[in-house]
Amino acid sequence: MSDLAPFLPKWACPPGATITDLMSARKISFDQLRAAIGLTVEETVQLLRGERRITASLAALISQTLGLTSKFWVDRDQQYLDDVAKLQAEGKGWVRSLPIADMVRYGWVSGAAEISEKIRTAFDFFGVTSVDEWRTTWMSDEAGLTAFRSSPVFAADAASIATWLRQGELEAQSIRCKPWSSDSFAKSLPDLKRLSRLREPDRFIPALTDACANHGVAFVVVRTPRGCPASGATRFLSAQKAVLQVSFRYLSDDHFWFTFFHECAHLLLHEGRLFLENGSGGLQSIEEEQANAFAADLLVPPQWRDKLSTVGTDPKRVLRLAHDLGISPGILVGQLQHLGLVRRDRLNYLKRRFEWPKA
Question: What kind of fold does domain 5-96 have according to CATH?
Fold first, then answer.
């Protein structure tokens, strides 16, 4: 039997399951069965596990001992072989759809050469025992990702998106959080935006993580594997714990902080389901606009908007206004560019660029 057998779901059960049921019904012991069909202990164990084929002669002996026809037992064995072959092909195709190379490179899973070990590793990573269970967990209507079927981000590679979300989920599970409180989280955001003035990620990310945890939010930064264009996501692991996940996809401070506060808006305004950035379909357009407006107003409150048109491209004025707003200069440049007050190719040197450490 193939070494993929341990990964088969219960509905691909070997003939041994039927044999065991009949043994119990007829009160036939293991030793009685073994003696009747002329097999050794090891061979009988192999038969019950589906690791030994049922030949015509063996089928006749099983039929005499347990009942049913010889043809039934031969057909039962062939059906099991057909199910195994189908599931093996499905498992191989599924694991090849995953960004395994990046998962290994980023340290999310251990490397494996054999396809069976890759499948075992992938199942362990997702916490499932079959491809069917994985589909139910990640691709069903209840899972949440199907809301993005019509979007380019979903079509790009749903398996890679699920992988990125799962890694965020695993990292979030290890973060100890106080119970979720939308009121206290909302009140904390003006102070959180001041962290944008810290230059280094190894300073502001731990500070963000601790601050968010105080309000029931597990904040995680997870780089995207091949095929996953997501920049952020939010969902709830439970009624008491939210996840805010970002990817640092664009590696600049203006994108990072706008994405962060955009995701905060989803948690505060649109509780209850998964949101995935760069995956918004028509049904989400209003919610995405609301989240964009929330983030923009938090970073540059409406009462400051008149001053935006006065800074022009003077870097000193930009730096001064950013200081007064309590945000990084790069964020202000990004907002000026977005509003059309500064050309996209101007003042970009005021944005901070980040790099992922080489894996």
Answer: 434 Repressor (Amino-terminal Domain) (1.10.260)
